[in-house]
Amino acid sequence: MKLVIAIVRPEKANDVLEALYRAEVRGVSMSRVQGHGGELERVETYRGTTVKMGLSEKVRLEIAVSEPFVEPTIEALCESARTGEVGDGKIFVVALERAIRIRTGETDHGAVTPVGK
Amino acid sequence: MTEIPALAAGVDTGDTAWMLVATALVLMMTPALGLFYAGLVRGKNTLNTFMMCIAALAVATVMWALVGYSFAFDEGNGIIGGFDHVFLKGVTFAPREESTIPHLLFMAFQATFCIVTVALVSGAVVERMRFGPFMIFAALWSVLVYAVLAHWSFGGGWLQEKGTLDFAGGIPVEMGSGFSALAAALVVGARKDYGRQALLPHNAVYVLLGAGLLWFGWFGFNGGSGFSTGNPSVLAFTNTLLTPACTLVVWFALDLLRGRRVTAVGAATAIIVGCVGITPAGGFISPGWAMVLGAVAAVPSYAIIVLRPRTRVDETLDVLAAHGVAGLTGILFIGFFAQMKWNDVSDGLFYGDAGQLGLQALAALATPVYAFVVTFVLLKVIGLLTPLRADEHDEAVGMDVTQHGEEAYATGEGAILITPESGAEAEPPVADPV
Hints:
The complex is a heterodimer. Chain A is an alpha+beta fold. Helices cover 23% and strands 35% of the residues of chain A. Chain A is built from 3 helices and 6 strands. The two termini of chain A are 17 Å apart. Chain B has one domain (13-393): Ammonium transporter AmtB like domains (Ammonium transporter fold, Orthogonal Bundle), CATH 1.10.3430.10. The longest helix of chain B has 32 residues, at 354-385. Classes of the chains: A alpha+beta, B mainly alpha. Strand 4 (49-53) of chain A pairs antiparallel with strand 1 (415-418) of chain B, so a sheet runs across the interface.
């Protein structure tokens, strides 16, 4: 069981969700985050004030998956989120100790497997 | 030394006072339209969409003063006006023929119509057209399409000569913008995510507020198109209240039938459709028929708004449905229900003059064809000189950042202030997010 955390471009978020759906990965949490990962800064000007936008808008996806789904998830993320430019984002895979589905009390593998599987 | 008279001969103070106010009301419709349009697009394109309307305020006004007004309202021939008012030559305090307001004020009032019409067309190309090419298009379109159509209907052109009735701009403003929008959408092409992803309005409150302000401004638009405080103005003013209200009621009913819920974005659209419907007919039909027009106008526009997204034509903000088709409905409606008793000009088919309907139908055929063809060719030509649309990356990131270097909803978090002393390289202080 792994928790896959992906930081991707917001404009790629829809492509990523589509790719995950095609890879039959269900169960995703998504949040808007701001961050910095070495990409070039954007300069914006408001009246006399010029600023470098040090932080970029990103989308963070959290996906808890059982072992057979780890590689398909990573593949789907890489293919759908890549543009080739600096700032495409990162994927972090961390070990997941426990998972519990609140509605049924199912734990671990049962909890991260989609209903109806 | 001769003094300039305080009032030029033939000027009526009451009429002039109203027309000064009406001009300001119509000018407000352009930023109101900006708000309406900005609410309908995605958050990342808010400023760019609004700025297209602001661009119309800039370039359409300048072009109007330079040549547009002359092409629209100088005598010229049946198709286009002459050069006698180029650079506003001869536009002074003395009224035009059969007018009781200063010529200068007449010109300003007509300018506000040109501006808002140019802004309307932008609705077809938002979220992907580059800002520079749009400004070039706006400048040329305001002369080649708007001024010509205004000449046909108001400036002594062939439609007006024949006796086609258009009170406040169903021909140049509504049909002119609507059918040009269709051409613009076809030339510029669909947004890259169109038909693949849900592209939703990001703030329906802007849409409602924009529609409300447009309705408010429309009292100047229609009520001012009698150029006086006389009966036609009062009739058009009152009809501008009655017609959109009826459109709203019918739109609610259509929404209920179709989706079992009355929608806010639908209501805002209904207000526009009603105002557009009464625009050509305002001073020509009775209040009772104006209410019927409101109800009737809802149906074709509603149908097109439902059907258009099922096609590949990304006429993004439905200018064709809300303006082109509703304007056409209003123009034809005059042919049926105009009433000499109310307008002192002509009867429609229902009151015994079938010829009027023919004249209205002529405008309903010629205007869409002219607007569509000229806009199509104009954009194709501009497209040969410079790319019309942003590349895929810029479109994906959003037009606000890529076209203007600003965001509508900037948080300032993590923004680094660049001061002239520090330069970009030195250790700069972090900007205060507040």
